[in-house]
Amino acid sequence: SASSTTSSASSTASSSVxxxxxxxxxxYGCWQDGPGPRILPQYQAPDNSNMTRxxxxxxxxxxxxxxxxxxxxxxxxxxxxxxxxxxxAPDKSGCQTQC
Length: 99
Known about the structure:
Residues 24-99 form the WSC domain. The protein is mainly beta. The chain has one domain. The chain has one helix at residues 53-62; strands spanning 2-7, 26-32, 43-44, 67-71, 75-79, 87-88.
């Protein structure tokens, strides 16, 4: 499945994320989990129907993670890098789900 992943690392990639993110966060676009475990395996927040990209970045920042991703309307994942064969999604249409 695909998720939108954002990191606190600097990048020249264009940002399509909301302006309420901390200034040092940059969007890296849409990523896919590999065939194995999640690409952000360190922390998954409990599913929350009120989850937004903004609330996910705030949660991950508060726990000192460098990367976050949202998926399936209500899921938030945190980590410090992309792991387990994660790669950018070739079809970005799967990343337009409102969080």
